[in-house]
Amino acid sequence: MVATASASAPIGVFDSGVGGLSVLRHIRAQLPHEHLLYFADSGFAPYGDKPESVVAERSLAVAGFLVANGAKALVVACNTATVAAIKVLRAHYPDMPIVGVEPGLKPAAAATRNGKVGVLATSVTIAGAKFLLLRDQISAASSAQFLLQGCPGLVDQIELGDLGSDAIRTLLERYVVPLIDQGADTLVLGCTHYPFVLATLGKVIAGATAREIVLIDTGDAVARQLARLLGSAGLLNQGSDDAPAPDSVAVAVAAIGIGAAATLQGYTSASGTALSVAFANLLGVDAPVREVVI
């Protein structure tokens, strides 16, 4: 697949909904010439309350759609999908650059001052064997204590779009305050949806403690790793004026100011209007969106 890929081909990014836009914005900032496809699988959301096998099967289907639309690389912009599907995706596309996201335990262990790190994530993420192995390895190497907190319902509320709602604040208080009470001085945002409620999270933290709490978001690291893999494969787009040509499935997309001629095309398994609003409200862009069934 990569052997015949063009540097001007798009990067495929997907998440269970709009949370992956927190990763997409880092990719846009660091790789301004890259054409992007974003798939919000909101019709199948949330991933966090589904068995790993189901999430893996769904991730393969979404990845297949993006590859059929010409993607030269894949970004699994969802912690739950990374835990459930990254191995099977890499096995299925062995020559393609694929980047997943995982909670930033290593930077959190380096940032903590008292050795207590709270981890906010979906229930599937914190129960995953890959995550637990990572936790054990970093804990043994750093002596950091990781306090795990599943956050049922939080992704659902963020997907509704009212990021300052009372419902979101109530959930954050339920999940965050106990971690602070246990002494956590660092919090890992272990789901790509969570960076979008930083304002409310800050208020909840301020109401719970006067201590400084460090927040860890790994979107920047994902974009850096993507750039490294594309560079190694000779697939970095250096800024051609040519946009990727649509194939039999894709549609022509309009340049929206990502870079000199970069494009963004959105796809969703739910409401196209909702994704358009999310693009506008969370990224400040007006990008074409298609509703699809896969």
Automatic annotation (TrEMBL):
Keywords: Cell shape, Cell wall biogenesis/degradation, Isomerase, Peptidoglycan synthesis. It comes from the Bacteria. It catalyses: L-glutamate = D-glutamate. GO terms for molecular function: glutamate racemase activity. Coiled coil: none annotated. GO terms for biological process: cell wall organization; peptidoglycan biosynthetic process; regulation of cell shape. Transmembrane segments: none annotated. The active site is at 78 (proton donor/acceptor), 191 (proton donor/acceptor). Its EC number is 5.1.1.3. Substrate binds at residues 15-16, 47-48, 79-80, 192-193. Pfam families: Asp_Glu_race. InterPro entries: Asp/Glu/hydantoin_racemase (IPR015942), Asp/Glu_race (IPR001920), Asp/Glu_racemase_AS_1 (IPR018187), Asp/Glu_racemase_AS_2 (IPR033134), Glu_race (IPR004391). Pathway: Cell wall biogenesis; peptidoglycan biosynthesis. Belongs to the aspartate/glutamate racemases family. Provides the (R)-glutamate required for cell wall biosynthesis. This is Glutamate racemase. It comes from Massilia violaceinigra. The gene is murI.
